[in-house]
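Sequence only, no structure available. Ideas?
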Amino acid sequence: MSRSSTEGDTAALTFADVSAVRGGRLIWSEGAFEVPSGGIVALIGANGAGKTTLLHMILGLVPAASGEVRVFGRKPGADNDGIGFVPQDYAATAGEAIRARDMVMLGLTGRRWAFGRASSVQRQRVQETLAAVDATEFADRRLAQLSGGQRQRIAIAEALVSSPRLLILDEPLASLDLRSQREIVALLARLHAKLGVTILVVAHDLNPLLPLLDSAIYLLDGHPHYAAMADVVDDALLTHLYGTPVKVVHTPQGEMYMRSVL
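Reply:
I predicted one. C-alpha cells follow.
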C-alpha cells in the first residue's frame, strides 16, 4: 500500500511568502500558495525563471532566502525517502552497464553497493514495481540495450519503488518519440489512479500532458503562482509566461492544445 493512501490529507506543498536567492541574486519572491495532495501538477515557466531552484528547494538542496516551505507538513529534506525524483538527465547518469532490475533496487538501497545482498522482501518489491510500469520483460537487460521509453519506465520505477508520497519528474517526455510520449503519459495516469501519489511534472511542452494535469505552479514576473489548469491554459497568461504569442485551440472532439502564433 502506498504512503499516500495511509496518511492524512496534509497539503503536498506549502509555500508561505517564500523567496529564492542563488549566488547573491534574487531568483523569485513572494511565493505564497498551497498544493493539495493527490493531484498531478505541472511546473512551468520560461527558461531561467527558477524552476530548477524551486525543485531544489522542495528537495531541501536550496534553502528559502525568506519565508517557509513545507513538504507534507515537514521541512524540505526531512523525509526525502517520501519523494521519488526522476531527473532530466537520468539516462546520462544512470550508467550503461547496470541491469534495469538492479537500477530499480538502488531506489531501495540508496546506492549502498557494499551492504550485502538484497532481502527477499526488497526483491519482491522491485518485481512488483517493475510490473507496475510494464517493464518486467526487459528487467534483466542492461540500460545500454534499452530504448528511451524503456529507460524512462525504469527511471520511474526507481523513483516509485520506495512508495513515495510525491513523485517529481523533470522533463519526462524530453527526447522521446511521439509513441513513447503517449505511453509514458498513459503510464503516469495509471500509476496516479492506482497509487494516489502526488505528481509534479516539469515541462516545456504541455500538450502531451494536458489530459493528465489538474493544476500548475507557474513562474511569472519573478513570482511563483499556483492555479487550476483551466485557469492556466489561457492565451494571455501563456503568451505573457513564455514571451511569445500562444493560442489555446479546442478541437471539435473537446480536446485542447496550445500552439505558437507566428
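Residues 3-260 form a domain with the Rossmann fold fold (CATH 3.40.50.300).
Hope that gets you unstuck.
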